[in-house]
Amino acid sequence: xxxxxxxxxxxxxxxxxxxxxxxxxxxxxxxxxxxxxxxxxxxxxxxxxxxxxxxxxxxxxxxxxxxxxxxxxxxxxxxxxxxxxxxxxxxxxxxxxxxxxxxxxxxxxxxxxxxxxxxxxxxxxxxxxxxxxxxxxxxxxxxxxxxxxxxxxxxxxxxxxxxxxxxxxxxxxxxxxxxxxxxxxxxxxxxxxxxxxxxxxxxxxxxxxxxxxxxxxxxxxxxxxxxxxxxxxxxxxxxxxxxxxxxxxxxxxxxxxxxxxxxxxxxxxxxxxxxxxxxxxxxxxxxxxxxxxxxxxxxxxxxxxxx
Length: 307
What we know:
The chain is α/β, with parallel strands linked by helices. The chain has helices at about 20-30, 55-70, 85-100, 125-135, 145-150, 160-170, 225-240, 245-270, 290-295, and strands at about 5-10, 30-40, 50-55, 75-80, 105-110, 115, 120, 140, 175-180, 190-200, 210-220, 305. The strands form two sheets. The chain has a ten-stranded mixed β-sheet, sandwiched between helices. A two-stranded antiparallel sheet has the order 6-7.
């Protein structure tokens, strides 16, 4: 039985960001993807110049109404990423709630893009909308450490802190939380960063149990755009295939990320030449070239179950 995903994300003509980072890998893995472009830009904003348009909340509503009028709004997943507008974000919440009323099993996967490394890169007024409206209706969220701390009001200094933050996020709504990156020290040394995941399960008798994992991820000395969108899409896909095995879902997801990033950085250095730092165009994700790794990733990143 096919799975349908409604992906509401940014779109670029050149490169892989937002819907282009999510749609191709999901389609490769057998998902039907309907895309609504929250912005349509010539390229991502890491370039020197960009041009384009931003979709308003009213325009999003019009597009959704068109889908509804044709009775083709049956979805299994909703996937969202970066946005800068509170009314747009609130419209997304309205759409998710309506789709969940039609299909109580619908899974909403949200990357709550707020900022990183101690500072916000979206307007401050998005924070209460994410905290009070978006996260409570989400089923899977993929914050970084800064976003997880911001949403819960608790700092992460130890692995124990991270577990407590993930539990606080569970209490807000989502059953699956993956902190995609953190400043915690890796047991493998300073060339690795630590990611953590937590998933609540309901046993047949109705009681709850929680699976938690830690993942040590090799650092790469480059700035990529679109990796967060790819990550959320892959976590959607692999939790679909392994709904009760967060360890395997994370290993598949992080391994895809590793293969795509390694292929991208190798190609970028080849283009840039010896001793030269790759440019934004050279660091566009090598997505099509990674098709086989997306479909069947060799496991190169193992997750450790933690208590």
